[in-house]
Specification:
DUF806 family protein, alpha+beta, STM4215-like, six-stranded mixed β-sheet, 134 residues, 46% strand
Length: 134
């Protein structure tokens, strides 16, 4: 069985590919010079409380959105809204997943590349448990 973290990442990437026409990367992908682009990554905090036959865990999904400052800012804002709304309701293949928090960082200008880029990070916190088969 795949891990909850991997299932969450794959589900998020599939969802983003459906709702956007933007180049999606995970941390294993080679960086691209195509903009806009979205980088998806994750983290985990294991909760000490466990029910019988169940491990409760909190997982965090990070969505970094980069776009050229010369591109349409309104389109970026609309896309970020769609991402926030759709990723609240991830459907995982092997686990139950419930979103309980998200946060969107303020837009910053990233000058670390040859282009000036707008950068926004959205974090989603999920409670993920194994599906019980009775």
């Amino acid at each position: 069985m795949i891990s909850p973290q991997h299932d969450m990442l794959q589900s998020a990437i599939r969802t983003l590919e459906i709702i956007t026409d933007i180049h999606i990367l995970d941390l294993d992908a080679v960086d691209s010079n195509e903009y806009p682009q979205i980088i998806v990554s994750s983290g985990q905090n294991i909760d000490a409380e466990r029910a019988k036959n169940e491990q409760r865990s909190t997982y965090t999904l990070y969505v970094d959105y980069f776009d050229d400052v010369d591109n349409d800012h309104g389109l970026m804002m609309d896309t970020l809204f769609s991402i926030r709304e759709y990723l609240k309701y991830l459907r995982l293949s092997n686990y139950n997943c419930q979103s309980y928090a998200f946060n969107q960082s303020s837009e910053t200008i990233d000058n670390s590349t040859s282009k000036s880029l707008r950068h926004v990070t959205i974090t989603f916190d999920y409670h993920i448990t194994e599906k019980l088969i009775i």
